[in-house]
Every structure is written in structure tokens, then in C-alpha cells.
Amino acid sequence: MLIPGWRAWVFSLKAYIAMALALFIAFSIDLPRPYWAMGTVYIVAQPLSGMVQSKAAYRVAGTLGGAIFAIFVMPIFITSPELLTAVLALWTGLCLYCSLMDKTPRSYAFMLAGYTAAFISFPSVGTPQNIFDIGLARSEEIILAILCVTVIDMLILPQRVGPVLEQRLDIWFANVIDWARGVLLPRNLAEGASTDDAPHRLILDAVAIEQLRTHAAFDTPRLRRVQPSLFQLQQRMQSLFAVISALDDRLTQIRQHRPDLAAELDSGLEEIELWVKDPDPGRVQHLHKLLHSLEPSPAAIRESRDELLLANAIARLRNLVDYWVECQVLRAEVTAGTPAPRASAPIAVHRDHAMAALSAVAAMLAVGVCCTFWIAAGWSDGASAPMMAAVLCCFFATQDDPSPMIATFVQMMIFAVGIAGLYLFWVFPAIDGYTMLVASLAPFTILAGTYIAMPQTMLYGLALVVNAAASMGLAETYTADVQSFLNSSTALVLGSYTALVVTRLVRTVGADFMVRRLVRAMQRDLADISLGRLQISREHLEGRMFDRISALIPRVRGQAPEQGMRVLREALADFRLGYNLLTLRRLRKRLSTPAREQLASFLRSLPPFFKRRRSGRDHGSAALLDELDRLIATIGREPSNHLTNEILLTLIGSRRALCPEATFGSAAIDSLPPGMPPSRARVGTLEETA
Q1: Please, which pLDDT band fits residue 345 given cuts at 50, 70 and 90?
Q2: Is residue 482 within 8 Å of 426, Cβ to Cβ?
Q3: Which of 292, 554, 637, 644 is most buried, by the most CB atoms less than 10 A from its CB?
Q4: Running DSSP on this structure, what letter comes out for residue 304?
């Protein structure tokens, strides 16, 4: 059993004080449904101030949007309950779809607009002339609760998001240093350790940073000013992630198959490793000169595939130095709160339109089923059923399988209804006045609030408080009766079970299914890039890929360890391959006609390769490898210049991403034209490839 810590008790006491204040004001100004304010306090309450303020802002926007829609459609469709049901179900589904597509804290406004319309419209079916008053009352109650939570949070031990965000940035930088040092010099790793888990930690750190960034803008003005720097820092973090991942692959191959080349690199790697720990911008030029001295010549990379791999590794080292400097500069801007003028766009994310549409359909069906039963039965208290169905289908739509969480919520709801019954028919008849009311609520709400503060038990505590508040139906005068209580409680439970059944029938998918969808989405983008059907920037592509890998990590944990690691390794390889395909598409027109046609043939062979790999059949890697090696040989015979050098490095990176199991001493890759022993000279500054 989890025991709440002092932070949980502080959070709960603050929420209780905000609830007491909201009830006092609601009773004082004769608001009709103070229990709306009571429940909203606990929905909006968050452990960090920025989270409170952002959720409050988006809840106000969603509430007003839903209220305006309800007030607009009710007079139009009131004479046709079937059409009104269809319109409200469609509105709920549309808002849920928009919410799932947004993937920022702003998505809460869309979701809330969806089910707020249901909360206002369905109770007004019998008295449509009161729709405006009900919409206004709900807006007033919600805004009152939000103001109370925000004020209390600001006055009593506020905890800002800004310092938490900067702490997560420090953790990310420290983890990057550890990963880079382990990649550059494996002796830095603890005995028996590897760098395999480092990318996963960095991805999860980056996800946490993105979640905190939006909230920090609300409570930390300095971080609000540096949003462009934060966006660019996140983009550079993703680029650096891809570079270190590629560098890990290249150095591992060189150490395994050409220890003599690895020995030549050691002195340079040691200098870069020391610099990564203590990045001095004044030494960047020295490091570039050092890499210049280690780089094979254009002739060497045409004579030996191992030299080509070495050149690719050195290009990645150059990227590592440049990106790490940029990250340090951007981190300093964030700390100082003084961003340099720059244009930047938010991080791109993966959007699954089909799953969002399926979630919307499930919500519409659940609302429609409840309304159909309500209308057919002529049940006067049945409005709560479609309302609760809409809420539950929206709340848990981000889950692969929402049904377990909905089931837990329903169990807590039944428990909460029992608690509300005790209060309504045993406690409240024995008390009188606001003071006694608030005092009687203290034991239950404060204890439940501590569990809202803990992530592991948040759902239990929130379901208890919110459903108990709704079932109590606090008002200015005591008007509870057993029949109305049982009717409304039955409607709540019926709506919840309807949402559960519809979700299990329509919306439930497994983690393995979502893993396949994410992998398919990654490979679909790669196939579209290779065929020229997708025009996308490097930053946009890496944002999408990064988001997909971050979604894969928690899902593969339920698979066999070996299978999960294989999925993640292939996803990281696809991440790197995306860079290379963009480079090949960008440079292909500057090749000679035979080389360009051979490159086009290779790019056309990638979509079938990805399809075979997904199906589990023979990947066809041998044929693809042969075609790629012939292409590398052809490019090697082209005139030596910056263009062909860059394409060669890109192709060797693509080879490692597509066929990592292929070694560099096989007959298949001894097909380059013969030449003199490799010589060492600077190749030239090469573009970013992976």
C-alpha cells in the first residue's frame, strides 16, 4: 500500500482549501450547482503551478466552446431528439478527434468542448428554455473553481514548472555526456554495461522535457521568452541523438573488424571525449583540425570500404562537436532568459489519424447507445448516462486499450456513489450551514486528495472525489431523496458500463498492434521519401521519427526482451536512414545519367524491402545489399568531388542502417575498383548524413 508523503498532503490541503473557497463563493452568490465547482477543483488541481495554469486556461476555453455550441444547437434540434442525439454525438467525436491530433496540453480544450456540450444539452432536454441559464451556470461554476485553485496555488507553497524543466534539461545533458563517453571510449562503461539502454533513457527524457515546456511558459516568464531557443534546443537534441546513435554503430564496426583503424582513431577520440565532458568553444577549431588530420582522402574511400566507413565515422564526430556546441549555446540562452533572434517551429510529432477516428467513432457510438435507451425508456433521470459515456470515452482515448482504466474508474465510481449516499442520508441531515458542511467533507476529500497527488493512484483518488461530488449534488438547500439519488446513480453506472462495452468491442487494441502500426508509419515515410512522394524537411522528419520511437519504448517492454530490443534497433536504424534518403534525393540530379538511374533503381527497391520485412518473410537483404554495393561501386567510379564524396558517405550510412548484419570483409563488398594503398588527406566538409 502506498503511503502519501508530505508533498501529497500539502497538495491535498491546498485542493481542499480551494474547494472550500469555491463552495463558499458559489453559495454566497446563489450559483445553482456548486457541486460542479467542487468537482472542477480536483480536476484542475496539479502539483506544479504551470500545470494548474495551463489546464485552467484550456478548461475555460473548452467549457466556453462547448457551452456556446450547446446553446446554438439546442433550439434548432429540440423538436427532434434523434437529430439532437446525432449532432451531439458527432460533436463529441469531432472534438475528441481534434484533441488526439493536437498532442499538446492544448488538446484538453478540444476534449472538454466535446463533452461539455453533452453536460449542458442533455439535462436541458425537458426544459429547453433554460439552456442558456444552464450553459451560463456551468461556465460560471467552472471559472470560479479555476480561479480558486489558481489563487490558492499561487499563495500557498507554489511549485513552478520552470525549475523542474531545467532540472530535466540538466539530466538530459548528463545522460548525453555518459552515452557519448561510452561510445567514444568503451572503457568508460561500467563492467558488463553497454550503450544499448542509453538511447531509450534520452528519448524518455526528451519526452518529459516537451511535456514540461508548454506548462513552464505559464509560470516562468523567463522560459516563456525563450520558447524559440527551447524549440531549437529540442531539435538539436534530436539531431544529436541521431548522430551519437550512428557513431556508436560505426565505431563498433571499426573496432570489431579493423582494430588497426580503431587504434589510429584513439588519440582523437580521447581528446573529443575530454572535450564533451568540459565543452570549451575555443577548442572547436582545434578538434576540427584534429579530425581533418585523421580523415581518409577521396582516393582512399574509393579504394577501401573500411576507409569509407572510417570517413563516415569522422563525419559523425564532426557533427557531434558542432551539435554539442550548439546545444551548449542554446542551453545558456535558456538559463539566461535572453534568446538570440531566430526563427523556429514547434517539434513535429506523429499523428495516427485512423486510431483517432476510431476513438471518435467509439465515443459517438457510446453516446448514441445511451441516448437511444434513454429516449426509448422515457427515463426522466437518464441524461447522466450519455454524459458519463462521453466523458469516459474521451478521458481514456489515448490508451491502446482504454477498457482496464474505464473498468477501474467504474469501480471507483460505485464506491464513490456509496460514499455520497452516506453523506446525503446520514451526515448532511445532521448538520446545518456552510462551516459544518466543509468540516464534514474534510476527512474524505483530504484523504482522497493525497492519492490524486501520486501518479500511481491518481485515477483512484480522482474518480472517488469527482463522482462523489457529482452524486452529492450540493445545492443551497438540502433536497435529496432516495429515488432521485438511485435513479441518477443508476444512470451514471449504466453510462459508464456502456462506454466500457463499446470500447471493448470497437476501440480496444493491443500493444503489439500499436508497435506494428508505428513501425509501419516509420517505414511508410521512408518509402514515400525514397519514391519522392513525401517532401519533408530534416527537422520535421526527425521530429516524427523521434516521437514514434518514444511511443515504441513503453510498448515493447511487454514483449520478449530480445524481440523488443530488435524492434528498437530497427527503429533507430530507420531513424538514421531517413537522413540518408533525404540527402540522396537532394543530390541525385547532380549525378551522371547512368549513376542517377542506378540510384533511382535502388530507391525504388526500398518500399518492397520494407514490406517484406514487416511481413516476416525473407527480407531480401542479400539482393538489396548486392544492388547497394553495385551502386557504391558506380559512384566510386564517378569523378572525385564534394558531391560524390558526400553520396558515398550517405550510401555507406544507408548500408549500415538497412543491413547492419552485413560485415565489411565479405566478398559482396570487395567490388570497388582497385587502386593504390589508402592515403590520408582531408576529404572536405561533408553534409549531415547518418
Answers
A1: low
A2: no
A3: 644
A4: -
